[in-house]
């Protein structure tokens, strides 16, 4: 198997696990406190719907939204990176540093830790820009 494809596949699976863990974090807090905003979910456990989501659930939802702004871009750029044969030597670094940055971003987001959340976000964005430059270099 091509090394670039290997690192891309690994990063993709790790990002899936991270996003799943964010969802599990939300479920843990909802179930643990038996607090559900959606009426049918609350009724299922014999409770009234909450007026708003728990703070932990809200924070995790914002982390999810940030993932939805960044991870699809990574996935698209990663496919382009592979298809154009961009630098295989840099692939592992770019894909894994991006993935690590997204993990850290989520941990820092859930913990309300600044400025490290912003640093983790910026590291991921830098990886995306470097991937873009590598793609352009491969096709020009």
TrEMBL record:
Keywords: Acetylation, Endoplasmic reticulum, Membrane, Transferase, Transmembrane, Transmembrane helix. GO terms for molecular function: glutathione transferase activity. It catalyses: RX + glutathione = an S-substituted glutathione + a halide anion + H(+). The keyword Endoplasmic reticulum applies. The keyword Hydrolase does not apply. Its EC number is 2.5.1.18. InterPro entries: MAPEG-like_dom_sf (IPR023352), Membr-assoc_MAPEG (IPR001129), MGST1-like (IPR040162). Conjugation of reduced glutathione to a wide number of exogenous and endogenous hydrophobic electrophiles. This is Microsomal glutathione S-transferase 1. It comes from Marinobacter daqiaonensis.
């Amino acid at each position: 198997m091509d090394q670039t494809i290997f690192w891309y596949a690994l990063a993709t699976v790790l990002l899936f696990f991270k996003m799943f863990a964010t969802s599990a974090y939300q479920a843990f807090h909802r179930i643990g406190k038996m607090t559900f905003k959606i009426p049918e979910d609350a009724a299922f456990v014999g409770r009234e719907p909450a007026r708003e989501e728990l703070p932990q659930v809200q924070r995790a939802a914002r982390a999810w939204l940030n993932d939805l702004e960044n991870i699809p871009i990574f996935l698209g750029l990663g496919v382009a990176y592979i298809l154009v044969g961009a630098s295989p030597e840099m692939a592992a670094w770019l894909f894994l540093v991006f993935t690590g940055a997204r993990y850290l971003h989520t941990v820092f987001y859930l913990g309300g830790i600044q400025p490290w959340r912003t640093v983790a976000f910026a590291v991921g964005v830098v990886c995306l820009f470097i991937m873009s430059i590598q793609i352009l270099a491969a096709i020009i």
